[in-house]
Amino acid sequence: MPESGLTFFSTKRFDRETFDRHAADAGVSIRFLEARLTPETATLAEGSRAACLFIYDDGGRESLQRLSECGVELIALRSAGFNHVDLEAAEGLGLTVARVPAYSPDAIAEHALAMLLTLNRKTHKAYLRVREGNFGIDGLMGFDVSSRTIGVIGTGKIGSRFAEIVKGFGSRVVACDPYPDDSLAGVVEYLELDELLATSDIVSLHCPLTPESHHLIDEHALSVMKHGAMLINTSRGALVDTHAAIGALKSGKLGSLALDVYEEEGDIFFQDLSEQVLQDDTLARLLTFPNVLVTSHQAFFTHEAVEAIATTTTETVAGFLREGPRGVPSENLVRRASHVHASER
Ligand code: NAI
After folding, report:
1. CA-to-CA distance for 18 and 14, rounded, in angstroms?
2. Residue 76 three-state SS
3. Which of 58, 182, 194, 225 is most enclosed, with most CB atoms within 10 A?
C-alpha cells in the first residue's frame, strides 16, 4: 500500500471535504477509508505513522496491537471523548494518543436548546401539519420557558454555556457538578442531584459518561423528577437507562424526552437505514412517542465545530510526524489519568 502520513477510519463526506483542505495546508497526506477500525481492518493502516479514529471505531487492545504492528505510532482521535480507546494497552504499546479537547461548546449547547424549544412548542409537528394544509393549533400548546426551572447536570464547557443561554430566557437555572464553577455565580444555583431533579421542569445532561455516571437517570432518578418534566440528553447515551425512560414516558411521569445520543447508537447513528427494517426494538419504541425527539448525534455538527476538529487534528498529526510526541500540543495528549473531566464525544 502506498505511504501516507495518516490513515483515516470511518470517513464521512464532510470529514473528507474539511480534512482534505486542512491536511493540504499542513502538508499531511491522508488515506481516507470508509471502514471502521476493527481488529480486522487495522491492517489497512499499513504504511501510516498515524491513524485517525472517530467514536464508533474500536480502539480496543487488539485493534491497537494490529495498528502498532503496521507501524502506527499515533492515535489521533477526532473527538473530545476517548472512552473507546484502551489507554492502558496504548501505553504498553508505546502509542501516543491525542484528541480534540474542545471544539465548539456552543454547538452542543445550542442543539440542546433547539431540542428544548422544539419539544416545548412542538414545531416538529406544526411543520408537518401546516404542510398538509392543517392550520389548526389544537395539541400544540407549550409553556413559557421563562417561567420554569431548568436543571443543568454538569457545568463544564458545554453545560456552562447552556446555562448562560437559558438564563437569558429569564428562567431559574439550577445545576449540579462535583466541581462547582464559581464563575457561574449569578447564573446557576448549585444543588444536590436529587434536589435538582425534584425542582426542575427541564433537565439537561452535560456530564461525561464515567462508571459513576452510567445510568445516572435511572428508575429512581425518574421517580424523583417532577411529574411531566422534560429530559434532554446531548451528552452520552448510557447516562440514561432507556428502558426506565420508556416506562416513565408511558406512565406520563416523564413529559417529554429529547435524545441526541442513545445507548445503542453505535450501529445505527450516522447511517442511512431508511430502506431497511430497524432492528433495535427499544429505539423503534422510542420513535413511536409523540413527545420524544431523537436526533442522530448531530449536536456537534456545525461549520465552526467541524472546522475546529479538523484544524486541531491536523496540527496534532503534522506536529507528531515532524517531531514525534514532543510535536503534539500537550493539551491534546490523552493520558490515563486525564479521566475525570473527560468529554466523551
Ligand atoms: P467538560 O469536561 O468540560 O465538563 C463536564 C462537566 O461534568 C465537568 O464540570 C465535570 O465536573 C462534570 N461532571 C462529571 N461527572 C459528573 C456527574 N456525575 N454529575 C454532574 N456533573 C459531573 O465536558 P464538556 O466539553 O462540557 O462535554 C460534556 C459532554 O458533552 C461530554 O461528556 C460529551 O459526552 C458530550 N458531547 C456531546 C456531543 C454531541 O455531539 N452530542 C459533542 C461533544 C460533547
Report:
1. 6
2. strand
3. 225
* Structural domains in the chain, sorted by start: 6-103+303-332 (3.40.50.720), 105-294 (3.40.50.720)
Q: Which of 110, 236, 315, 344 is catalytic?
A: 236
Three-state secondary structure call for residue 272: coil
Residue 297 is predicted with a pLDDT of: 96
Q: How far is the CA of 208 from the centre of ligand 1 (A)?
A: 4
Single out the residue of 188, 192, 121, 194 nearest to residue 149, CA to CA. Answer: 188
23-29: long-range contacts, CB 8 A cutoff, minimum separation 24:
23/314, 23/317, 25/314, 26/314, 26/315, 26/317, 26/318, 27/318, 28/314, 28/317, 28/318, 28/321, 29/3, 29/4, 29/5
Distance 234 CA to ligand 1 centre (A): 9
- So what's the pLDDT on residue 154? 98
Residues of the chain with pLDDT under 70: 1-3, 337-345
- What is the enclosing helix (H) or strand (E) of 115? helix 105-121
pLDDT tens per residue across span 69-101: 999 999 999 998 888 899 999 999 999 999 999
Measuring CA to CA, which residue among 67, 95, 120, 54 is closest to residue 269?
A: 54
Residue 97, amino acid: V
pTM over 0.90: yes
Buried b (16+ CB within 10 A) or exposed e, 123-146: eeebeebeeeeeeeeeeeeeeebe
Cα of 132 from ligand 1 centre, angstroms: 40
Strands 50-53 and 6-8: parallel
What pLDDT score was predicted for residue 61? 98
* Residues with a CB atom less than 6 Å from ligand 1: 80-81, 105, 108, 153-159, 176-179, 206-208, 212-213, 234-236, 260-261, 297, 299-300, 341, 343-345
Residue 122 confidence (pLDDT): 98
